[in-house]
Q: What sequence folds into this?
């Protein structure tokens, strides 16, 4: 069973980039994906209108929990992967988390992003008994710089004080991840002339997809949870 994944945090930290990157991996692996755009700016909807959207990806918008729920149910029925971009609104983050199996809280290693991630984690913890049974959540490092600043290291230790786990792999700061928003398409169907460094971005994205149970073992019924990321 493919999990329903929701992504969100209270402050802009790379939610949409993470959602689109995961969707791109799945589509490249021939997995049908419903990208549910529940974020304020509808960046995913705008992205889909640029063209070059893989045929495996459908983008839908959801302004409220009822719409989100209808889309998630339909995706589960079809056996599609559903990814909800819940954006930064607390209502959307809570609704999306309740409907999903796994929530990712993107966090940049900057103080304001980390405080927002910790607050998001607190909200999800308060809601832990609600929604799908056994749902879990994790922090996902986003736009990581390869040489971390002293500040970033301190901020990272703040995140590690939470009981909530952090994915081992995050997304490094790469121009390749921005290219789909300029040209349409995903890192898997763009070319290196347009977006340098695609190979590394693809490898990183695929590793992340394995870790959250979308590729590999996560795709078989009896091993639906390849990695227990819950606290
Ligand atoms: N891993 C990354 N590498 C390079 N650029 C990134 C990465 N992650 C995010 N960005 C850039 O940072 C900016 C914000 O990212 P994104 O739009 O994904 O965040 P968001 O949390 O969805 O923001 P919003 O609150 O506007 O919805 C964008 O310009 C995006 O291209
Ligand atoms: Mg966004």
A:
């Amino acid at each position: 069973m493919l999990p329903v994944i929701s992504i969100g945090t209270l402050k802009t930290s790379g939610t949409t980039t993470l959602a689109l990157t995961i969707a791109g991996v799945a589509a490249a692996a021939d997995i049908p994906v419903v990208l549910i755009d529940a974020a304020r700016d509808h960046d995913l909807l705008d992205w889909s209108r640029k063209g070059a959207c893989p045929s495996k990806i459908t983008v839908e918008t959801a302004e409220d929990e009822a719409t989100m729920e209808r889309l998630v149910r339909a995706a589960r029925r079809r056996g599609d992967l559903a990814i909800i971009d819940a954006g930064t609104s607390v209502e959307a983050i809570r609704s999306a988390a309740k409907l999903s199996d796994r929530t990712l809280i993107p966090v940049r290693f900057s103080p304001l992003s980390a405080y927002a991630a910790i607050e998001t984690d607190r909200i999800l913890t308060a809601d832990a008994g609600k929604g799908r049974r056994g749902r879990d959540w994790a922090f996902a490092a986003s736009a990581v710089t390869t040489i971390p600043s002293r500040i970033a290291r301190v901020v990272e230790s703040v995140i590690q004080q939470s009981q909530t786990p952090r994915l081992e792999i995050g997304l490094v700061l790469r121009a390749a991840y921005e290219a789909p928003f300029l040209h349409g398409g995903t890192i898997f169907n763009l070319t290196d002339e347009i977006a340098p460094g695609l190979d590394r971005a693809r490898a990183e994205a695929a590793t992340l997809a394995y870790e959250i149970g979308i590729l590999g073992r996560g795709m078989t019924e009896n091993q639906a949870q390849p990695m227990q990321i819950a606290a």
Notes: Residues 218-231 have pLDDT under 50 and may be disordered.
